[in-house]
From TrEMBL:
The keyword Transmembrane does not apply. This is TetR-like C-terminal domain-containing protein. Keywords: DNA-binding, Transcription, Transcription regulation. Gene3D superfamilies: Homeodomain-like, Tetracycline Repressor, domain 2. PANTHER family: HTH-TYPE TRANSCRIPTIONAL REGULATOR RUTR (PTHR30055), TETR-FAMILY TRANSCRIPTIONAL REGULATOR (PTHR30055:SF148). It comes from Actinomadura vinacea. SUPFAM superfamilies: Homeodomain-like, Tetracyclin repressor-like, C-terminal domain. Residues 39-58 bind DNA.
């Protein structure tokens, strides 16, 4: 994924160490204070690197957010394979639930979503982040089609998005408990719907 000109990283080198420190500092500020408080000078001070380095490499807060999302996509845990659609969807839902209910990560995702609302560059980066995550987990639905668990033509991306949607709803709007039971209900509901053909793509009408 393209970070929007954030620079080349040499694994294990000084460039990688600076990037890691800056992204960690940016994530902390986002989680603690929100996107509106993300100032590059403050990020540099917290990361212990020169302000000039941060401004030269990232330029502005939206580009820094974009690079943070690239890093988060790269660091995300690989999908779980359980051998059944319900098992895979439950694993996905529980991973989302654990992430969003984590004190730091939940606030961070709220800030990232707020940034996407306010800035087009941040929005593009957030969309790319979720495309990567959805595509990785979509393979579990395609495998379910091959096993005959769900009908041919099932839209794998829609299935994965439907699992996490109620969890994000709880995070952002309802304030209902974001617990493992909620994750399991979401996975079960989507698995049942997928088996009935609810996510089969409709053919294009003439």
């Amino acid at each position: 994924m393209d970070a929007g000109g954030a620079g080349t990283v040499r694994p294990g080198g000084r460039t990688a160490a600076v990037r890691a420190a800056v992204l960690r500092a940016a994530g902390d500020i986002l989680a603690e204070q929100g996107f509106g408080a993300l100032d590059l000078a403050d990020v540099a001070a917290r990361a212990g690197v020169g302000k000039t380095t941060v401004y030269r490499r990232w330029g502005n807060a939206p580009r820094l957010v974009a690079d943070l999302l690239v890093d988060m996509a790269q660091q995300s845990l690989p999908r779980t394979e359980t051998g059944s659609l319900l098992g895979d969807l439950r694993a996905n839902a529980r991973l989302v639930q654990r992430t969003l209910s984590d004190p730091r990560q939940g606030r961070l995702f709220k800030a990232l979503i707020a940034a996407a609302v306010c800035d087009e560059q941040a929005a593009d980066a957030l969309h790319r982040f979720y495309r990567v995550r959805v595509e990785e987990w979509a393979s579990c639905v395609r495998q379910a089609v091959e096993r005959g668990e769900v009908p041919e033509g099932t839209d794998s991306h829609e299935v994965v998005r439907a699992v996490s949607a109620p969890l994000y709803y709880r995070l952002l709007t309802s304030g209902d408990p974001l617990d493992e039971a909620a994750a399991d209900r979401a996975a079960h509901a989507v698995a049942v719907a997928a088996r009935t053909g609810a996510y089969v793509s409709e053919p294009d009408l003439p």
